[in-house]
Structure formats: structure tokens, C-alpha cells
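Incident log, entry 3
Record: Oxysterol-binding protein (761 residues)
Problem: checksum mismatch between cached and fresh output.
Input:
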Amino acid sequence: MSEPKTPTPVPAGDTYKGWVFKWTNYIKGYQRRWFVLSNGLLSYYRTQAEMGHTCRGTINLATATITVDDACNFVISNGGAQTYHLKASCEVERQRWITALELAKAKAARMQAESDDSGDDFSSSSPPVAPGQGGGSQNSEVQSALRTLGSKVEDLSTCNDLISKHGSALQRSLSELDSLRLTGEAGDKIRQVTERATLFRITSNAMINACRDFLALAQAHSKRWQKALQAERDQRVRLEETLEQLAKQHNHLERAFRGAAQANATADNKSAAGPGKGEASDEDDDNEFFDAMEEAPEFITVPADPQFHKRSSSNISGFNSEMCLDDQSLNEEPLAMNQESPSQELVPLKKRRTRISDKPNYSLNLWSIMKNCIGKELSKIPMPVNFNEPISMLQRLSEDLEYHELLDKASKCQSSLEQMCYVAAFSVSSYSTTVHRTGKPFNPLLGETYELDRRRESGYRSLCEQVSHHPPAAAHHVISDRGWTLRQEITVASKFRGKYLSIMPLGTIHAIFEKSNNHYTWKKVTTTVHNIIVGKLWIDQSGEIDVVNHTTGDRCHLKFAPYSYFSRDVARKVTGVVMDKDGKAHYVLSGTWDEKMEFSRVMQSSRGGENGTEGKQKTVYQTLKARELWRKNPLPEGAETMYYFTTLALTLNEPEEGMAPTDSRRRPDQRLMEDGRWDEANAEKQRLEEKQRSVRREREREAASQRTSSQSEEGAPHENYQALWFERCEDRITGEQVHIYKGGYWEAKDRGSWEGCPDIF
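Fresh output:
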């Protein structure tokens, strides 16, 4: 790395350039880049030739933080999406850059503060001034500065006169000494002193002349600066006047719309909207404004007057009077508040475990695995437990109930549209546990089951069963005492695409509420595991979900935005719109799938905004203040050493009395892995897989012997296997062939009778 053009750091405003190594990614590591520090901005280019046309990135030092990692490394960050990890060639070079950056940061921050102060002083002046009269105080400050400079130059001129006077006297004295005709060394010394005095007087005159030139230049440029500043002030005044006119036009249109809505209201709707009387002031200080959702390409949200909902919600929302009265409460409190007292809540009767054994730090030799797979069938490749986490896919499916309280709240909603908000939030919450979970769950054996009985603590019971092995499919059924049922059958398809692995869950999830008889369905989005070969594994969720209420026709369209290195939006973003059967929007959902979801009530929608990528106009929604629907629970302490398990996940593999013989908690290889005995777990895993293959071959032979010439359509693909607790039938909602719980499991558990369970472990 070459030295910068300037050997030592210079203040911001001048230019400091040089080669510095910048961190790019885990594959390329640090790459040499050409950095330029100028006017408080740090920019970088791949080469010096790019300076004229392509800047790769710029960071403003006024709001940046500069930290030193070690002898050669340092980090520059603006607290947002821009962070530069840099490395100099040596400690001296790093210190030069740090000094230059700190000087530039200090000057940039000072200039920004001065600019803000001058703007505040200008805007807070008591009487408004015309464009031609503004800035009198700034002009006086400039003139005062020029007068100060002039006085200093006069002081220097006075000093110069004194120097000339005393210098002339000194030269006369030296001439008199020289006239004494001193010879030898004394005469040489006198002549030398005379020459130096002459040089000193000439230098002083030159300095004074330079100061005069500086003052003249400052006076000449001050007029140009004043003109430019005045032009900017004039432009600002014109923009403020234009903005004021636009605001007045907007308020006028809004009042006209409200008047038309009130004129068309029916008598019932007028009584429902009665509490909001009178017009609100256009200058209402209670108005709240929120940023538009730039990350949603289909629509834009803008703030609505909070009082607008009270005055005309019956006309705008289109709800009936019962739903309208219920919705008006949303302006005062969150959706579907739980009206039960805390004393009525169920309390845990069993203390669940809060820790498991720490994950061992075993190294994994990928080549040793690959070389043993040469020539083998893909289905027979033994994958070590190093890639797994100590729970099965059935337990992972049960983990969707981490936020079951969302369905509890949904069951109490009076409005189906409110209920849709909670169901949509529940569909998003199931992904919150995946953000750090890069381990692969154990593939269930055919006939394997898992029960999650939380009836006493949370009011629900869950049962999963592996109903098919090729393709692998798991059926799941949950019944809650709080008025809802959840069922699903999930088949996982995956595609390896070199750098990443795409996992596509196939199947439909159903949620049924007893009180309202509302039946909701939705599917799962695609999960992508990145950096399969090189780098640190990380997971992303992307795709779209349609949550449909088949009873009322309501629909919620959710979009999971894929991660993009170049996007300025927040990572893992989710947006959605809740619409009725007529396609009219009532709520806007926004948030992230790993943190929280919020909803905003739509007051009005219209076509407008910027054109989309296909030339279509976006829909603009006027919404009330956003309220929180769901927030992720914090991970337990020490989760990073326990596979990043949540509080619920830590209890999923905890042994209990009365478990079925096929329950995942009885699986030996999974238990050995949880205990940290991975070598034994690998051996046990191979034994179980080989046992399953033997049972499958035996089942195929029996099916072949019983098969007649007219082979049944479903016999071969499903290996003539019948699930124990679920039966295969056609779903009346989707028309798909699915497995639905047929009953009997919990009764068998109460009796302790498991005669029909196969021996799979």
C-alpha cells in the first residue's frame, strides 16, 4: 500500500488521500481501496482512475464515530447502515489517518453546528422580513469581521513602521562603527550584522504587503458570498410560501371530503358518529405525522387526523354499526384487550427446565464427510449430528405455538378484520425463532410422534405425527380451550443452489375459531440458508403470504422482503394490508419477522404517489398511529451456548411421564446429542436410519405380495402405510389430500394404552 500524497494529516477542507485496506466480505476479506478525505466527507474508490466518475461510497464524518481496534485496524460508522472496517499498512500510517479523520470530524461538526445556529437565529427572528431585507444581522457580522481584520492589519503596519525606524537607526549605528575603519574580524562581523538587519526589514515589509492583499481579497469575496447567501435565503422563502399554499389546499380538500361524507351518512351512522362534533382546527397541534412506508412497493401510508376517525368512521370504513362501535375503541386502546382479570389466568403447575447441556465445540472436517459419500445414493448418505440441533422436525413444528396468545386474543375479537390482524401476526411470529437457528432439526422417523401438552399452563394440546417418509410429511393438530383449533400438514422441498440452500415448505395451515366460525388458511414462505460452503451461516425469509378468511372473504396480503446488500430498508421487513371481501383496505401491517409487528387503521385510501416499476400508481393509505400487535420474547440467558433455543424450545425435549413409545423425546440419538455425546449419537443415528430402511423394504415386499394386477393409485407412492392418529382425506376448503386428526390419542394416553404404536426406536 502506497503512502498518501500528503505526508502528514491536514485539516478538513484540504484533501488527504491514500490507499487503505477495506473489509468487503468473508470471501474476499480486506481489499485495497483508494480513500479521499475532503470537506468532512470520506469517499473511496477501487482505483485512482475512478475518482472522476464512480464513487463506491461516502460517509459524513460530522455524525460518524471513529474507533480503533488494534495496531492497524480502525472502524468508521455513522450509526446507521454505513460502517467501514479499515486496515492501514502500519501503525504509523493508521495514526496519520486517525489524526486526519479526527481533525476533519471536529471541523465538520463545528461547521454543522454553526450552520444550525445561524439557521435557528434566522428563523426565530421576531418580525418576518421580506426577501430583500433578510439577513441584516449576518451582513453586520461579516462587516464586523472585516473591520477586525483591517484593524489587525493596521497593527501590523504600525509594527512594521517601528521595525523600519529602529532598523534604520541600527543601520546608522553599524555604519558609524564601520567608519571607524575597524579591521580584521570585527569589521567582518559588523558587515554581517548590517546585511541581516537589511534582510529582516525586507521580510517585514513583505509580510505586511501579504496581509494587505489578504484583506483586499476577503473584502472582494465577501460581496460574492453575501450575494450567494441572499439568493439561498430568497429561494428558501419562496419554498416556504409554496409549501404553505399546498398545505392550505390539502386542508381545504380534506374539509370538503368530510362534509361530503357527513352529508351522505344514514341516521344510524350519524348516531354512531355522534361523539365527534364540530370541525377540528386546521392548525391542530395534536396531529401526529409518520413516515411513509417506502419499503412497500405496492402502497404508501400517510398520517390521518386522529379526530377524523371519530367524526366520520362510519362513512369511511364502511363497517356496520356494531363493528364501527367496536373499531372506535381502537383509537383509545390496543386491539382485543383481554378483559379477564389476572386471577382468572391459568398458572403453571409444573416447573419446566430452563437450561440444557452446552453445545460442544467439535470441529467438522467437511472433506471427510464428502469422500465417504462417493458412489452412494443421496438418500443413504449419513449426515453427522454436527449439522443438527437436538430437536426433531415435529418439535420444531410445535414451536410455532411460541406465541399462541395471539390466537387467544384473536378468539375474543368481535370484528373479523381485527381477528385477521392477530392471525396475520401469528403467521409472522413463527419465523422469529429462526434468525439465529442455523442447525438442522432431526428428520422424524416414519410413525414418530410428538405431543406438547400445555393445557394447564396455556390451555392447548398439540400433537404431531410423521405420516409419510417419501416425500417426508408431518401432520399437526392443536386444540385450545380458549376457542381455536390449528391444523397443518407440511412437506418440505429443498434446492441446493451452490452458495445457498432454499427450503420451501409445502402445505396449508388452518386456523378455526369456534365463536365466530371463521376459518383462516395460509402457507409458509421460502427459507434461505446462505453461505453453505464458505462463511458464516445466516438465514433469510422471503416471499408472500395470503391469509384468507373463507367465512367472510377477508384477506391479508403479507410480503416478506428478501435481504439486499444495496437496500436502505430495515432488514427482515414484513408489510401487509388487511382487506375485506370487496377489496377495501382497513388495516396496514408493518414490522420485521424477527422482532415485532404493528398495525395502523386505514382512514382513507386513494390512487397516487410515485409510479411503480410497471408504471402503475401506488395506493396511498391515510392511517392512524401504529400500534403494536406482537413483539418477540427475549432469548434466555446463555442461549448462544444452547443452540439459540427459546424458553419454549428448551422444554420441548424434556422427558415426561406417560409419553407414547413413538414420542420424539424417546429418540436415543437425539437424546445423546443433547447430552453432548455426539460420537455415540452419530452411531445411534445410523442404526435408526438403517432400521427404518429395513422396515420400509419389508413393508414394500408385503405390499407387492398383496397387490393385484390393478395396482391402486396411492399404493406405491405411500408404501401402503397408514398413519396411526391421522387419516388421509380431501380438505373441503382447499381440495388438497391431507391428513386430519381422527382422535383417540389423548384418550389412549389417559388409559396408558399404547398397543397400536410401532417399535421405531
